[in-house]
Specification:
5 strands; 5-stranded parallel sheet; alpha/beta; binds adenosine-5'-diphosphate
């Protein structure tokens, strides 16, 4: 039987409870979910690509059909290589829509057989993004409601060592 493989791409600097909410939903729908960490140097991530991947591997270890990977270059080429037919993106609010709409139609032009599917997180995560988490953590504010415990420790270490 054909298995449906979905790619969930992003920067994940770091992975948050909002991302995890999307990963859990996707894992219930698709046979396999690959969380693909982009290099994204333009966003100047605070965690290396390897660190970002390792945090995802750790916080999804109890979800059997989820794995983390690294990619660079065109997302659709990576998806084709992995035999994925679905790209997952999270939609939090209308403000996400325009950018996501443009990306999804561009990706469809590049690879018509791959569909982007949008999932909405629980509303309690609809305001949350990695940059808010980074900023709060940099001021030593408590972010334990926003990230898994493992990520919380990594953030503490990162900002302590800076
Ligand atoms: P990117 O740089 O590709 O936007 P992010 O790591 O910021 O990478 O986000 C990856 C994906 O996860 C995007 O589709 C984004 O909309 C989604 N996302 C980010 N935060 C949340 C959240 N709190 N709830 C649901 N989806 C989210």
């Amino acid at each position: 039987m054909k298995k449906t493989i979905a790619i969930y791409p992003g920067t994940f600097d770091p992975v948050t409870n909002g991302h995890l909410d999307i990963i859990e939903r996707a894992s219930g729908i698709f046979d396999k979910v690959i969380v693909a960490v982009a290099v994204n140097q333009s966003k100047k991530p605070i965690f290396t690509q390897e660190e970002r991947k390792e945090m995802i591997t750790n916080v999804t270890s109890d979800i059997e059909n989820v794995e983390a990977d690294l990619f660079e270059g065109l997302l659709v080429r990576y998806a084709e290589k992995k035999r994925a037919t679905v790209i997952i993106r999270g939609l939090r609010a209308i403000s996400d829509f325009e950018y996501e709409f443009q990306m999804s139609l561009t990706n469809r032009k590049l690879s018509p057989a791959i569909n982007t599917i949008f999932l909405m997180p629980n509303e309690k995560y609809s305001f949350l993004n990695s940059s808010i988490v980074r900023e709060l953590a940099s001021y030593d504010a408590d972010v334990k409601e926003f990230v898994p415990a493992y990520v919380l420790e990594k953030l503490k270490k990162k900002f302590r060592s800076n």
